[in-house]
Amino acid sequence: MRIAICDDDRVTLDNLKSIILQELQINNFICDEVDVFDSGYELLEEYSKKSYDAIFLDIRMPEISGFEIAAALREISFKTFIIFVTTENELVFSSFDFQPFHFIRKYPSEYLKIQLKNVIKKLSRHIRQNESIVLELAFSEKEKICVGDILYISSEKNYLVYHFLKSEIRVRGKLAETADKYSAYDFIRVHNCFLVNMKNIRFIDYPNDEIRLKDNSIISIGRSYKKALNEQYTLYLRSLR
Fold this sequence. Notes:
The chain is 34% helix and 29% strand. By secondary structure, it is of the alpha/beta class.
């Protein structure tokens, strides 16, 4: 993962980088780079060479505004998470045009740290969902997929079926081992035969022991998994607030 911070004030840059690195470590999230820029033009030049997963962006800067930078970024990609950092609360609604991940106030400084803590926690979950993994297919073939595109994984004897919005991929494997591997990506075992991506749950019908996913498919909940599902999904939803 690569993160960039852009602010024309050097003290703010150093403070933001220090807090972000600390919170990433607390969340056990490995970050390859946290780059700082005091010029929006330098950020855009670097972004054109290699994109960032997340950018913390000041709005009021002398050479080029954060909104102008965000507009340029969005012409290149909508995948980068943009977090605006500013002293002016009235700009929050104007920022929506650039589909920001979050909006953080710089002051008071104590509140800034609390906001960053919450944002990093949410951000780490979203970025994990954007990670790519490689599935080993038959005849030594491989297929690269995005974790967030998986709706659920079902078990059929010695095979696993990865279910996507409009397709399926069948591979050899055991659900128990896969459940351990995907727990870091917010997948949860809900049945002997089903592993569900909590990101893609539309709602849970506990009285009828069913989960409806975003594609309207319905997954049964095993009785022995019901309590753990309730607890973990509640914690997952809280972490996104």
